[in-house]
Write a structure and sequence with these properties.
Number of strands: 0
Strand content: under 5%
Number of domains: 2
Helix content: 55-70%
Shape: flat
Structural class: mainly alpha
Number of helices: 4
Length: 118
């Protein structure tokens, strides 16, 4: 039997809805088991647990496609293209600048090079 795209969409939405409800129920049960006893916090309902899931997704994952992972892939692809167009000397110079110029280290904090005759 040939399925139409509409049936697949309804099936997908149904599975997503059930999965969301199960995840929300899990968050609600976990919250209600821990937070009131440990921190004297409120008990949450299923709707509030779903809201917490949505809020945490927005705050920690962002609105990007599937949580923003595509941004990292795009950035990595652009970096690889840039490195591929460089000579080996330019590549090594850029890496050393990135390593010590990103704010984590100061340029002068690298291991001192051995000087000839010492």
């Amino acid at each position: 039997m040939k399925y139409r795209w509409g049936f697949r969409a309804v099936k997908f939405l149904g599975v997503a809805l059930v999965a969301g409800l199960v995840l929300g129920l899990f968050v609600m049960l976990l919250w209600n088991a821990l937070i009131p006893d440990l921190f004297h916090g409120p008990v949450v309902s299923l709707e509030q647990a779903l809201g917490l899931l949505l809020l945490s997704h927005i705050l920690f994952r962002g609105w990007g496609r599937w949580g923003g992972g595509w941004r990292h892939e795009r950035w990595r692809k652009r970096l690889d293209e840039k490195l591929a167009s460089m000579t080996p000397e330019e590549r090594e110079k850029a890496r050393s600048e990135w390593r010590y110029g990103c704010g984590w280290h100061q340029k002068g904090t690298a291991e001192p090079e051995e000087q000839p005759g010492t």
